[in-house]
Write a structure and sequence with these properties.
The protein is of the alpha/beta class. The chain is built from eight helices and 14 strands.
Amino acid sequence: MQTLDSRTDEWGVVTVKDDSVYRVLSFGAGDEQSRLLKHQPHWLQHEYAQAMLLVLLFKTPARVLLLGLGGGCLATALHYQLKGVHITAVELRSSVIELATKYFYLPYGKRMQIIQAEANNWLQTGVERKVDIIFTDLYQAQGADQGQFHATFIENCVKQLKLDGWLVINAWMEHQNDTSLLDDLKPYFSDIRTTHTSSHNWIIIAGRVPNTDTHQTLKQKAHELSKALGFSLSAHLNRLSCESL
């Protein structure tokens, strides 16, 4: 791949690479933070990001909050799929925002707001209006930001959710062994489901109000939504399990 741009800030290097088909944002050697299919930028390429969109089977949002922007691929997919949705994305690094805006076809307009801030500090200030879904995907070159798995972070997320809102967390398989993470979610969420990916991500989808759809109903929803998203949700749905409360 050809290097299009590279920036260095206090957190490290951010690089954009490109070939005739894909564009990639990286935070370090061997890292691939975002991957964009250039001719269909709204089709998510990473399996973990696809699995995060299982939440759309449970909630059709009017307002979404993204904690961690990266190349903006998730924001682009949501903006394209949900025609009326308002998206707020909070990103720590100005260099990431600049590169996502310049190279990754990030949508703009009144439905898209990007804020440069540290996520947990910003959550404590509060959103202008509470949101239906929060996606938290905070990563640096060394891996996941462990702060997003702490009780105070989860509590701050809950304060910004509507009473029937959902929280989606991108974690690693190793977090499955950390029972404190699910324990911290249980006081606030009555519906907690998890799934894993072949890339060793562990996705947590937690709803404040339980969803009562049957598996057959969810399967039909997944089939219909998959056609619009450009990838199949069925395999992710089949791996989805409910956590005991």
